[in-house]
Structures are given as C-alpha cells and as structure tokens.
Amino acid sequence: MPKISLVVCLHREKDLLERLLQHTQGCYDELVVVHDGAETPAPFLPQTQEASPEQLSLTSPQVPPVQMARDYGDLPNGPAASPGYRLREDFGAAGTIQELVQQYKGRFCEGPRCFQQEPHWPFAWWIARHDWILRLDADEYPSEDLLHWIQDFRMSSLPKIDSAGFTAIWPLWNGRRSCTQRWPAGRLFLFNKKRVSFVGMAEQAPVPDTFFQPTDRILIHSPKRKSYGVRNIVFRKQAYVWRSAIARSLQQSPLLLPRWRFSLSEWPSPWREKIRHPIRSALTALFWYPLCQARDMLRWEKKIDLSACLNPGLHHFLMQIEIARQKCRSTR
Predict the structure, then answer these.
(1) Which of 8, 157, 164, 204 places its Cα 20 to 30 Å from the Cα of 116?
(2) Could you tell me if residue 22 is inside a domain?
(3) Looking at the 3D structure of the chain, how many domains does it have?
(4) Burial class of residue 8, CB neighbours in 10 A (0-12, 13-18, 19+)
(5) Share of the chain above pLDDT 70, in %
(6) pTM for this entry
(7) Quick check: is 305 in a domain?
(8) Residues 234-272, buried b or exposed e (16+ Cβ, 10 A)?
(9) pLDDT tens track for 179-222
(10) Structural domain includes residue 203
(11) Which helix (H) or strand (E) element contains residue 196?
(12) Nearest Cα to 146, choosing from 168, 163, 177, 172?
C-alpha cells in the first residue's frame, strides 16, 4: 500500500491550515509543514554554522537566496537540515502554526522568507519520508469524493499504470462558493516525487517523467477572496509579487534556484520562448489565451464568464511585460 506525505508550504494562514487538516483526516501517513519565513523568533535554539531563516529572508520579492540553490532530489537521506531551514522540535507557543502542526503530529520547519511557496517545495519533498506527495495549499481541501478517492488510494496496491501523479478539477471560487463544476481541470494534487522534476520558481509546476492521470474528482479552492477575475489580476498586490519574482528568476540559470531532479542549465522550452520573445509572448497571451479559455469553459460548463476567460491571458500578459522590463534592465 502506498504511503503518503501531506506537504503544505505557507506564510501564516493558520485558520486555513486548520480547516485543511480537519478535511484531510485519513488521507496521509505523514504531515510536513514549511513556513515561508520564521513564524516566531527562536533565540533559545542552539546556534549552528548554517544560516538561519532570518539571515536569508528577503525583504522584497526577488530571486531566492543563492544558499538555497541545490538539487534536493540528489541529496542523500539525512538529517532535516539545509542552509536557511530550521526544524522546530521545541514546543510551539499557544496559538501558533507550530503548535497546530504538533497537535496533528506533524513536523514544522521554518525557511527563508521568499514571498512564494515554490522555492520551499524541493526541501519539503526531500525531508518527506514517503515517495507519494499530497501537495495542497492552505486555502484548499478535498471534496468528499476526492477525500474517499485518496483514502481508497492509500488502502490499495500501488497503481499498475506508469503514472507520475494525478490531477483534479479545480473549480472557480467567487468568494462565497464554487461557481463551476467541471472546469478548469488539471490541478496536480498527488504525485510520486521520484517521477517528477521541478525548478523552485513561483507558478512553476512539477514536470512528470511520464504523464499525470486526470481524475473527475474536485479539489475545493476556497480562499478568503475571489480566486479569479480582472480585478484579482490588476489590483491584487500578491500578483505583482509573483510576476516580479518570476521575471527576476528567469534572468539567470535555473541552476541558481532550489530544484528537484533538474540538472539542465537552460530553462525548459516554454520558458525559453518567453525569455527570448517576451513581447510576442505577451500579445499571444492577451489575445489567444482568452479564446482558448472561452472554448474550454463553453465545452465543460455550457456557459462563458468573460472575467474568468480574461484572467489567465491578462496575468500572463502582465508577466511577459515584467519579463521584458527585467530583460531590458539586465542588458543596460
């Protein structure tokens, strides 16, 4: 039977994490939570020669600290220690995320503040004891059908198909409820860490050695805000943080980022095109993406929401403009 590690990387969001843990009972064999930045100061912990989360933490969205740049997929199994990370084994103070994780008998680590979760994934997967990773964000939780699917997966023999992982439907959230039922799909929620590669940059997804198998189950994305829409892209501060971090990361080799089973000095082909031709890619995103979104939404939902269809195209357009801006700055 497959063993599963539930891995969550977050910054604060204690109430959302508590909801997630309440909705994932029986879904995992191990819990690993990595906090983006130090949740609480720890001057009483033994000092080592390794950098602490506070020493490596960023003050603005930039490329993750170079001390994090390593391929964690090639590191041997060993103690949960790496530059900038701290495994908190002391008792968490009342009301902290650390205390909550310990109540669920999980392991809690603090890492450098990176303003994004993806740079922490390689470390989190490395310290996870099991190959199957249940990767959920704090503002997500499985539907009842998906919950039973994961529980059945844990009790079954290992899949006979050569799948690297499984994807779910990820309905749009309007701030109060899910407003789609079958679209969008393709959200990776469970994968085997020995069958994927990854570069730790915002909005980058694991790349399978083989393929990801779709399921017809729903992963509920329930943030405190609307999860889509033009306003969400244009006025949300965090979106600019991510786009800036992506553009800065793309100006250098992926080998200078935390990685998982990735040893190429060049970015994968989709990113190479965006780096070489940012303006052309921006225009493609602005005009072509909305048409594709409208086609898929009409196919699966029998309706079209203009705001939802414009969402990814506008986001990628603004991201490409930021890439072009960073590229111009680097060539001056």
Answers:
(1) 164
(2) no
(3) 1
(4) buried
(5) 94
(6) 0.93
(7) yes
(8) eeeeebbebbbbbbbbbeeebeebbbbbbeeeebeeebe
(9) 999 999 999 999 999 999 999 999 899 999 999 999 999 999 99
(10) no
(11) strand 196-199
(12) 168
